[in-house]
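Recall that a protein's primary structure is simply its ordered list of amino acids. Everything else, from secondary elements to tertiary packing, is in principle encoded there. The following example makes that idea concrete.
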Amino acid sequence: MNSTYILVMKHGALGDMVLATAAFAAIRAQFPDAHITLLTTKPFAQLMAQSPYFNAVVVDEKPRLFDVAGIRRLREILNQQRWTWVIDVQNSSRTRRYPWLFKRPWPKISGAARGISHPRPAHDVTKHAITNLQAQLATLGIEMGALPDISWMTSPDPVALPTPYALLVPGGAAHRPEKRWPTDHYTQLATRLAERGMTPVLIGTNAEASVLSSIAAQVPKAVNLCGKTSIAQLA
């Protein structure tokens, strides 16, 4: 019977999740026979369930502080198993509070929370996310490679596109609009790509529908796949 149970915490976002697959691979290599569960958010649950790194994937609804019912559900998830290890590679202000939801005695925990058994090294904002993850896992005796392997990200329903093409993602982080490139810049880029014989393919969620529709209306050769693709299909 398996006696090693590991909980890995990673919420997102997409770029960070892809980079974190290098950490996931290293954890699985270090504990090949362990039962490893990923705690993540809904947008990434189905994708990560396809990965070779986890035995189970559970969704964190990220309840608000005063959402008593939501906090209770989260506490039940965190205590569904007597974990041998909890490895927090999200290290957010939210997940730093999660250890206090575990039953005592706490499992061995790696992360940024106070009072845990294996605090990560101080986060260095001047270094790449991969470097900081490597430093964290090194404290656990886990050697992590520098490059993520996403070769497992395949889809049984690939998207057929005219070649050559370029993928444009105008939406970006909905909660941080200041990070978005202006829509008219994307329109100009799509126009130039089309003029050079390359099909601009617009992708994003339904939340960006108006932005993608605006670009498509001005660039007739663009293909608008808003809300029609999955991460695995794009990989």
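The chain has two domains: 5-138, 165-234. The helical segments are 14-30, 42-49, 68-78, 129-138, 183-195, 209-218, 231-234.
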